[in-house]
Specification:
By secondary structure, the chain is mostly helical. It contains 46 helices and seven strands. It starts with 8 loop residues before the first helix and ends in a 6-residue tail after the last helix.
């Protein structure tokens, strides 16, 4: 059986009711709906359901070319019963034979009706019948009259009639007053499901455009993507304003328009090209008279709706607009654009587009208008439209220098709108002319190298040349060129882990007025030297975010967001970042949307909202993959590696960080490597492998030499705990002392919590309790649930060791509750083991394996069970003997054994599916 029509549960329920109650007084149902709404699909589903019930189905289809052929529909319907005609005698047999022979001159008299009823009744006596008739209005009158008469008498036999007709049409069957059901457009969820079934893998902006244009029409959802090419479906190329339509869609949405009066078609064309135009404005622009009566035929045909006087006109369905434009000859479209350009003086951007559609050769005035339109589009979150405007402006440019500049600016914007493949072509087409903005050429190429290839070293070299061409006195409309260069340099600085890019950015900012580059300055200070200026940076961020206009460009917002993440204060401003993402994700600066999602993900992780973090990360990862921003794929994958480690999924974390490191290391992306290593720290600590955790932490910030950089400032607690648990207390104390002397605690409350907790871990017993209490009592400490719970966990461990078991249990239980709530399974398992050691018989949650051995632990256990020593196991697995000992120490309680002599029996029990006690 075919799959059921998506989103049609109510209709299928009505059909099932008809099939179950065909002996009722009205065993009939008429389905009404617009073209493409899915009437035929429902009729097909009804036929399948009838067959499943043992019913026989007879079908007929109304057709315009057969509407004048007497009894043509009955011929279709009864033809499968032709072998039964000879069972009848006399007039009934002759009448049925005439219907099946399409004999001319036969009329729908009572003899015809009774003959048809007799044939149907005779067939229904063997098997119940379902009669399906599609496109009722196109039935020939004789068939319609006969069926109309017959359906009123079906209640005596197991016969049901299911018919379909388009909304707004009428036929003779309407007079019978058959029960009707109107098929509505698909709801949003069903429309999305159908589109994803038919066209999986559409880029998110393309999917949203398809859903908007289809407006719940199933035919449109299935056919709109057909005429798009692969690049358009993947979101790499922008979609046209008027989507191409298949023949079926043109027939469904504009067939009636072809027969409208010429004046009406002109009005519709004006409205299609400029949806906000009123009838009065059209009257003012038309070369011949137009009045409200000219709109009436379109309203009567249900193509448009209009308020009184035509002040507002809108199409019944969005695709009628595209169909009207596509069926109009090019000359008429140009004339309409020209007329609209004369009346759109209040909207310079729209006027520029209309003028561009009328231009047939170079025209600098129109090109300048498109320049301005591009600036407005970029500010309004439609950078893709700005690219299109600049390319068209270049085509209309009489002078080579202007053409070159416009193409270079288009290339630069294409690099942030997901059109990376277009960047080299546009730059090559721009060529070299006098006054070519070479700085923007270098910056655009650097941005491409960074985002597509992750080659930050080559990008840095290009940006040193680009800055030589920066114009610090450019007007506001061109200032974004300089911001683009500074932003490209900021990315290189953020991820290369080298001081030179930051130094170059500092020198570049010195060329501008401080207020012009305030976001970049704050970001620089938040990453380079936050401990000295932390309060100033936090205050500056508050002032800068508050001063942002509602339409703040992503170049202004992203540097502030990066700075806010570095200072652990993004949660105060995330609504602004989310607003920018919503504005830019469809046709805007995709290259800014992706890091915006990544920063929101980071903020969600540190505040314990891990499901939300992973949803944001996945959206960013999907966009990065679709548009080719491999640079951001690496950054987001590193974050997800940490998330997997925190959730206790060591294998997934390992695969993600290995993939990240293999990509980042050859490209000199030190920060990305450091993020991957921080995931390794968390994975190792979750498994209790503190030796490995210390190795990974020391590669980010060596013991005794903490760094204020990112993510180095965030691994202080990791390194200190790993050092303490692996017996390297002196290293841990040296690191805490160095972090305090460097003033890391001044950066913000989260890092202050980590450093105070670290100090407690390394303190002597007479000071540790006070320090643990001080850490947990810090203002807003619970805002960072993972770090807060880790300090509680460490405090509980210390209390148990110092024999305050009652208080230890309280802190351990609190830590476990937090870890369970946020999903930190690796840490939660460690807390449960500590609780058991504190005398609490803590049950293992049902979804946690009773014996959660990692792959490495199982390998070590198997070798130890054979009698090998720790040193021999270490040599075979290329580990240190201390690491092997640590693993054995952890796996003994998991297996319920006290020594290696009992390992073999425990492993054999697991193999038999038994849980060790």
């Amino acid at each position: 059986m075919k799959s059921e029509p998506v989103g049609r549960a109510a209709e299928l329920e009505r059909i099932d009711s008809l099939l179950e109650r065909y002996t009722s007084t009205r065993p009939a149902l008429l389905l009404r709906g617009d073209r493409g709404i899915g009437k035929t699909a429902l009729l097909d589903a009804a036929a399948e359901r009838a067959a499943a019930r043992g019913m026989r189905t007879l079908r007929a289809f109304g057709a315009e070319f057969e509407a004048g052929l007497c009894f043509s529909a009955l011929h279709q319907l009864l033809y499968p019963l032709r072998d039964r005609v000879d069972r009848f005698a006399g007039p009934h047999r002759r009448t049925l034979q005439q219907i099946l022979d399409l004999t001319p001159g036969l009329s729908p008299d009572p003899l015809v009706v009774t003959a048809v009823l007799a044939l149907l009744s005779e067939a229904a006596a063997e098997r119940p019948l379902l009669l399906i008739v599609d496109d009722i209005p196109w039935l020939d009158p004789a068939s319609a009259a006969t069926l109309g008469f017959a359906v009123r008498r079906f209640g005596h036999d197991p016969i049901a009639l299911l018919a379909a007709a388009r909304t707004g049409t009428h036929g003779l069957l309407d007079r019978v007053q058959v029960p009707e059901h109107v098929i509505a457009s698909l709801d949003a969820g069903s429309a999305l499901r159908l589109l994803d079934i038919q066209w999986p893998g559409l880029a998110p902006p393309v999917r949203r455009r398809m859903l908007a244009e289809a407006a719940g029409n199933p035919l449109a959802l299935q056919e709109l993507p057909v005429l798009l090419d692969d690049r358009q479906r993947s979101g790499q190329d922008p979609l046209p304003e008027f989507l191409p339509l298949s023949g079926r869609l043109r027939a469904a949405f504009a067939e009636e328009a072809r027969t409208l009066p010429a004046a009406t078609r002109r009005v519709l064309l004006h409205v299609a090209l400029e949806p906000e135009v009123s009838l009065a404005a059209i009257q003012g622009s038309a070369t011949d008279s137009v009045d409200v009566d000219d709109l009436a035929p379109a309203v009567q045909a249900d193509l448009v709706h209009a308020d009184a006087g035509g002040r507002r006109i809108w199409f019944r369905h969005p695709l009628i607009r595209s169909a009207i434009v596509h069926q109009t000859p090019p000359g008429e479209r140009r004339s309409a654009h020209q007329a609209l350009a004369t009346i759109m003086t209040a909207s310079p951007e729209r006027r520029a587009w209309h003028l561009a559609e009328t231009a047939t050769g170079p025209d600098e005035a129109v090109a300048r208008a498109l320049d301005e339109a591009a600036t407005s589009a970029r500010r309004g979150g439609a950078a893709s439209a700005a690219v299109t405007a600049l390319i068209r402006a270049a085509d209309l440019s009489p002078h080579a220098a202007d053409r070159s500049r416009r193409l270079i600016e288009a290339a630069h914007l294409a690099g942030i709108t997901g059109q990376l493949d277009e960047v080299p072509r546009l730059l090559a087409d721009a060529g070299q002319a006098r006054d070519t903005p070479t700085g923007l050429v270098f910056a655009t190429t650097a941005h491409l190298l960074t985002n597509q290839d992750g080659d930050v070293a080559a990008a840095y070299r290009l940006l040193t040349r680009a800055l030589d061409d920066v114009d610090s006195t450019a007007n506001n409309d061109r200032r974004w060129n300089s911001c683009g260069i500074l932003y490209a340099l900021l990315l290189v600085s953020l991820y290369s882990l080298r001081p030179e890019p930051w130094e170059l950015l500092d020198k570049a900012m010195a060329r501008f007025e401080p207020e012009a580059v305030a976001p970049f300055r704050l970001c620089h200070d938040a990453y380079v030297d936050p401990s000295r200026s932390a309060s100033a940076v936090r205050d500056g961020l508050a002032q800068a975010f508050a001063a942002l206009p509602a339409d703040a460009g992503p170049w202004q917002l992203l540097p502030l967001a990066f700075a806010a993440v570095a200072m652990d204060v993004l949660s105060d401003y995330r609504y602004l970042l989310a607003r920018m993402i919503d504005r830019e994700r469809d046709g805007g600066a995709i290259a800014m949307v992706i890091p915006g999602l990544m920063l929101l993900c980071h903020d969600s992780y540190i505040h314990g909202q891990w499901d939300e973090a992973e949803r944001l990360a996945q959206e960013g990862l999907d966009l990065a993959a679709v548009y080719g921003y491999h640079f951001w794929e690496g950054q987001i994958r590193a974050l997800l590696a940490s998330g997997a480690a925190l959730r206790g999924n060591a294998d997934l974390s390992r695969s993600r960080r290995t993939e990240t490191t293999n990509w980042a290391a050859p490209r000199g992306m030190g920060v990305t490597e450091a993020y991957a290593r921080s995931a390794g720290i968390l994975a190792a600590m979750g498994q209790g492998d503190f030796d490995e955790a210390l190795v990974q932490a020391a590669r980010i910030a060596p013991a005794g030499a903490p760094t204020v950089g990112i993510p180095g400032r965030w691994v202080v607690l990791d390194l200190v705990e790993a050092a303490v648990r692996s017996g390297r207390l002196d290293q841990a104390r040296a690191h805490v002392t160095a972090a305090q002397q460097a003033g890391l605690h001044r950066i913000g409350p989260r890092i202050a919590l980590m450093i105070t907790g670290s100090a407690a871990l390394t303190a002597d017993d007479d000071e540790a309790g006070t320090l643990f209490e001080a850490a947990l009592a810090m203002p807003d400490a619970a805002r960072w649930p993972c770090e807060h719970a880790r300090v509680q966990f460490a405090y509980g461990q210390w209390l148990r060791r110092t024999h305050d078991t009652t208080l230890a249990r309280a802190h351990l239980r609190a830590a476990l509750e937090t870890f369970d709530r946020i999903g930190a399974e690796g840490f939660a398992q460690r807390v449960r083991a500590e609780l058991r050691a504190a005398g609490v018989a803590y049950a293992v949650p049902p979804d946690v394996p009773a014996v959660p051995l990692t792959a490495q632990e199982r390998q070590i256990a198997d070798l130890a069970a054979t009698g090998l020593t720790n040193k021999q196991i270490a040599e075979r697995l290329f580990l240190s003997h201390r690491t092997v000992a640590s693993h054995l120490h952890r796996l003994y309680p998991k297996l319920g054994v006290a020594s290696r002599t009992a390992l073999r029996a425990a492993l054999d029990a697991i193999a038999r599916g038994e849980v060790p006690s």
